[in-house]
Amino acid sequence: MIAQYDCSRRQQFSVSRRRSGDQEEGKSGLFWLFATIVAGSIFLSVQAWEWNHLHHEGLWFDKHGIYGSCFFVMTGFHGAHVFIGILLDSRGAFFVSSSLDIIGRAHHLAR
Predict the structure, then answer these.
(1) What is d(CA 89, CA 104) in angstroms, rounded to the nearest whole number?
(2) Separation CA 51–CA 31 (nearest Å)
(3) I want to staple 18 with a disulfide (CB 3.0 to 4.6 A). Which of 29, 31, 56, 78 is the partner?
(4) φ, ψ for residue 58 (rounded to 5)?
(5) C-alpha to C-alpha distance for 48 and 23, rounded to whole angstroms
(6) Which long-range contacts (CB under 8 A, 24 or more apart) does 80-83 make?
(7) How far apart are CA 38 and CA 31, in angstroms?
(8) Residues 6 or more apart whose Cβ sits within 8 Å of residue 59
(9) Rounded CA separation 59/52 (Å)
(10) What does the alpha-carbon distance between residue 2 and residue 108 come to, in Å, rounded to a whole number?
């Protein structure tokens, strides 16, 4: 929960800095945007490692009944959410537009 809040705050901070007219604040915003991208990439790497580990332990979608199915579906959707966020943030790092503001507002429904 704290990591999610931290990601959301980092995202909001980067968007507000990038949208300001000040060049120094824009650079600061770019730093925080890349920090968000790096944190998301680390999360996806750890999730891939965890899935690989669980698969070798015998837990997979079709194993252990409802627990295996629910676990992989829920963590898979969260991984997809993080991956899409990385793609949108990467686009926002190169193109400052109104879409960056929309991405920032929609991220975890934070305003």
Answers:
(1) 9
(2) 30
(3) 29
(4) 105, 0
(5) 37
(6) 82/40, 82/43, 82/44, 83/40, 83/44
(7) 10
(8) 68, 71
(9) 10
(10) 13
Give CA–CA dist 87/74, Å, rounded: 20
Q: How far is CA 86 from the centre of its chain?
A: 6
Only one residue has tokens 């793609």, namely 87
The total number of structural domains in the chain stands at: 1
Instruction: Quick: pLDDT tens for 7-55.
Output: 667 767 676 666 666 666 666 777 878 888 898 999 999 999 999 999 8
CA separation, residue 93 to residues 36, 61, 63, 103 (Å): 11, 36, 41, 12
Model pLDDT, residue 22: 63
